Amino acid sequence: MVPLSWYLAVSALLFTIGAVGVFIKRNAIAIFLCIELMLNAVNLTLVSLSGFFGDVGGQLFVFIVMTVAAAEAAVGLAIIISIFRNRESLNVDEVDTLKL
Amino acid sequence: MEKASTIIFIVFAAAAVLSALNILLQRNPLYSALSLIVTLLSLSALYLTLHAEFIAVIQIVVYAGAIMVLFIFVIMLLNVPAVQPQIEKQKGLRYLAIPFAGILIAETFYVVLSIGKRTMPSVPVGTEAQAVGTTWSIGTSLFTDYLLPFEVTSVLILMAVVGAMVLARREGD
Amino acid sequence: MTNILVEWVIKTVVILLILVTAVAYLTFLERKVMGWIQLRVGPNRVGPLGLLQPLADGLKMIFKEDIIPSQSNKWLYILAPALSLVPALMTFIVIPYGSEITLFGRTIELHVTRMNVGLLYIFALTSVGVYGIVLAGWSSNNKYSLMGGLRSSAQMISYELALGLSIVSVLLYSGSLDLVEIVNKQGGWLGHTGWNVFRFPLMFVFIIFYIASLAETNRTPFDLPEADSELVAGYHTEYSSMKFVMFQMAEYLNLITSSSIATALFLGGWNGPFVGRLPILGPVYFAIKALALIVTAMWIRYTVPRFRYDQLMRFGWTTMLPIAIINIIITATVILLFP
């Protein structure tokens, strides 16, 4: 049987890869994809703990996290589309007109 | 039998981690999105090893089948060129990323693995997990104990639909 | 353990063989039905009564030149037909074809696997099948393919909603996502009174499901994104030879899948007269019912004109979706009032 720490290790790895992706990528959509990856890593933690403790609350939380991720993806992509319409580029380094 | 489940776990965990790395390494956002789809499918297989069958199938239907389709539509409609002109404000930061990533991985591993060893022995996934992962158990707790989060989630989705439509509208529509 | 594995492998191979033959002969059946509706004889030259026509078509397709457009994205171009075909094939392992037969001293249940979440599994595969079309449209490096691919996949994900919600009404009656359970509950007097179509709100739900599945599989009247005279054949414009054959196979397989699911959910699956005594009649009844639904789809194809794309999307979102939701409410009320 696969011990719990292996699942948690995979989840930690995925979360770290997502976090690094958010820092080093400059394309807005790629940053968004890395955020979704982080959410999935947390989902894996929740489901594995739910399985090992026999508690349904973990899987329920995952259900709600997925719903929230869907809502966030829809609104975020709408924002990205309007930014793209205004400045023809998805480079987040260029979206800095509010900076001092 | 034990060997088989270990091999399945290793195969799908490796697929998840490698395709997650591929997201970072690709320049074209469409290939990153396709790698994320592979990650999502491997995670779904990992959920199946934990007997969480409802969440595994819902992950494919919602995440890989709807959210990622949305991402791919946006990428194709915006038709972003793969390599954009680089205006790197601070060039050296990108090379600092790798050692900091290494430190972050070491920290998370330390925390996660020490929790696993100290608080409880690794209890094998058994019949409790099988009873918990069914649609029936999630459905009953969703509509009895956790009814309020369910209703709040439906309002949240309504907000997201209205918000997305308003934000993505062209001027003068 | 090995016994079970061998059983699975044999069942899967048998189903695969039957499906591939069925797809080939469905192309022939379609042309025959088209001919009869248009008051002419279909193909009847090759072989007796034209029965070897699929063989001739297959040989022709194999000998065509296999083109890969030079500016296209090669790996995605080759992957897309497979992404369309494989999910269509994978749905057949959860559909029950019969109850149980006894062969060589073993009791064999006539379904490949039995999943607790069988219906959701079919949904998952339908959702993954959208990717084949989207990637085919994009990787061909052709404006018409891209527009056709995006339109087709937008249509598919819109009608998935009506499809899923119409299934919820059936689930309220049967109480389980397992297709084997759902079919087992539809027995009745002489095997045909317990069918789900004969229960009160479900007869309308069947019509909604059927229309939604026609839209899902890109059949007329919803086939604007891929029809030959619109958008230069849509997402499979640039495909030739075996990859085009894979797309056509995927389309016919999707048609067989949705007809089989409609049979299992609404028409009682393998139930029929005297099926308890002669279990071998189970698959026969199943095949007859599925075939009836397939021929009806072909009949509709050659009778009804095509929807325009915006009419199609408006129909899906403003008509089908509310009717499916209202049906769920009515079904739930009926179950509460008359248990």
Record keyword descriptors for this entry.
heterotrimer, B: 173 residues, mainly alpha, Four Helix Bundle (Hemerythrin (Met), subunit A), 0% strand, C: mainly alpha, two-stranded antiparallel ribbon, 10 helices, 2 strands
Tell me what you see in this structure.
- The complex is a heterotrimer of chains A (100), B (173) and C (339).
- Chain A has three helices and no strands.
- Chain A has a single domain (4-88), classed as Helix Hairpins, CATH 1.10.287.
- In chain A, helix 1 runs antiparallel to helix 2 (28-53) and helix 2 packs antiparallel against helix 3 (56-87).
- With 100 residues, chain A is mainly alpha-helical.
- Helix content of chain A is 79%, strand content 0%.
- The model of chain A has no long low-confidence stretch (mean pLDDT 89).
- Helices cover 77% and strands 0% of the residues of chain B.
- Chain B has 173 residues and is mainly alpha-helical.
- Chain B has seven helices and no strands.
- The model of chain B has no long low-confidence stretch (mean pLDDT 84).
- In chain B, helix 1 (2-25) runs antiparallel to helix 2.
- Chain C is mostly helical.
- Chain C has one domain (69-337).
- Chain C is 63% helix and 2% strand.
- Chain C is built from ten helices and two strands.
- In chain C, a hairpin with a 2-residue loop joins strand 1 (100-103) and strand 2 (106-109).
- The longest helix of chain C has 36 residues, at 2-37.
- Chain C is globular, with a radius of gyration of 21 Å.
- The relative contact order of chain C is 0.14.
- Chains in contact: A-B, B-C.
- At the A-B interface, helix 1, helix 2 and helix 3 of A face helix 1, helix 2, helix 3, helix 4 and helix 5 of B.
